[in-house]
Design a protein that fits this description.
The chain has eleven helices and 13 strands. The chain is α/β, with parallel strands linked by helices and 327 residues long. It has two domains: 18-128, no CATH class; 166-324, Rossmann fold, CATH 3.40.50. Helix 1 (38-55) links the parallel strand 1 (18-28) and strand 2. It is elongated, with a radius of gyration of 23 Å. GO terms for molecular function: glycosyltransferase activity.
Length: 327
């Protein structure tokens, strides 16, 4: 191979008018499916970029001020109804990766100079947290670092633990919600073994800032949540806390099998105790009459869960016992 030196005095020189960008640039498609689910945004979008940085020796110890994110479409390209959510998500979560504003790839393409990157990470592919089991093998330390770094960004000590129990039941609208939430709330509230324990229905935290949500989560020791993206927010619970997350019923011939959603993520959490509430029969859920109880997609995505004390209370008891252990 013959290397030809660059002649900067030659106006026709191909490489003459170029500029180098120092630091590390990450190029990817922001919210590719315009899915404004905060849980999936955190663990598919942002964690995917964070995880990529951890894969390479040269970027593993980068601080956020060394990283720049370049998006194919930034928030202003979204329709008006989604813009505010997009800005809320990016301003609240992306500081764990970068301390700079999100750049548009158009701003680079409009440059009159040829742009050269010192370090470029293009795309995120399957580096997000929700996917197949093999992808998350050996990533438990990265999940823990991600949690700690995001909490610190918002001024929260990731090692603090609450001094008193606080049980929260998550109220969710739309699909996969708890069909009998108020009934279960009353049964927990009146159960003798839970006397004196604070009990809350969490139904308005979506309107809070990301920082305020994370601070609220630090007061909770036990969360009872539907599965899906909403449950992922509780990855930021304090150490020794417990997430009780509902599963879904997988139809089989004349029967159902209890399945766990996002288990490929929950199985690799080291700071958090995750217990799966089993949904395993047709009286464990309620489905709209227009949908089919023997259809996997209908049941997985749309069934409302009917909580039963005989299955839920033993899980709460286990969570309380675990929190009392010294380790």
């Amino acid at each position: 191979m013959k290397l030809n030196p660059i002649n900067n005095s030659n106006l026709s020189e191909f490489n003459r008018n170029r500029t180098y960008l120092n630091n590390t640039y990450l190029i990817y498609q922001l919210l590719a499916h315009q899915d404004m689910n905060l849980g999936h945004f955190i663990f598919d979008d942002v964690f995917g970029l964070y995880s990529n940085l951890k894969q390479f020796r040269s970027t593993r110890f980068n601080s956020p001020n060394q990283n720049y994110i370049v998006a194919y479409e930034t928030c202003y390209r979204f329709n008006e109804a989604l813009q505010d959510l997009c800005y809320k998500f990016t301003e609240g979560i992306f500081p764990v990766v970068t301390s700079h504003r999100i750049l548009s790839i158009d701003s680079l393409l409009r440059s009159s100079k040829r742009i050269c990157f010192r370090q470029l990470i293009a795309g995120q592919g399957l580096s997000g947290a929700i996917g197949y089991y093999p992808k998350n093998l050996h990533r438990a330390p990265i999940f823990d670092e991600f949690r700690s770094d995001l909490l610190r960004i918002h001024g929260i000590n990731p090692d603090l633990t609450p001094q008193h129990h606080h049980i929260v039941i998550v109220k969710k609208d739309g699909r996969r919600k708890f069909q009998n939430l108020n009934e279960i709330y009353t049964k927990i509230q009146t159960a003798r073994q839970y006397s004196g324990i604070k009990l809350t229905i969490l139904d308005n935290f979506v309107s809070m800032t990301i920082a305020d949500q994370l601070k609220l989560f630090q007061t909770i020791t036990i969360v009872i949540s539907p599965c899906g993206g909403i449950s992922l927010l509780f990855s930021f619970l304090p150490r020794k806390s417990t997430l009780i997350v509902s599963g879904f019923a997988q139809p089989e011939k004349n029967d159902y099998r209890a399945e766990r959603m996002e288990a490929v993520y929950w199985d690799y959490q080291s700071h958090l105790n995750v217990l799966h509430y089993p949904v395993e029969s047709d009286d464990d859920f309620q489905l709209d009459p227009s949908l089919k109880k023997d259809d996997f997609v209908d049941v997985r995505n749309n069934a409302d869960i009917i909580l039963k004390t005989e299955k839920l209370f033993p899980l709460i008891d286990r969570a309380i016992i675990r929190a009392s252990l010294q380790y």
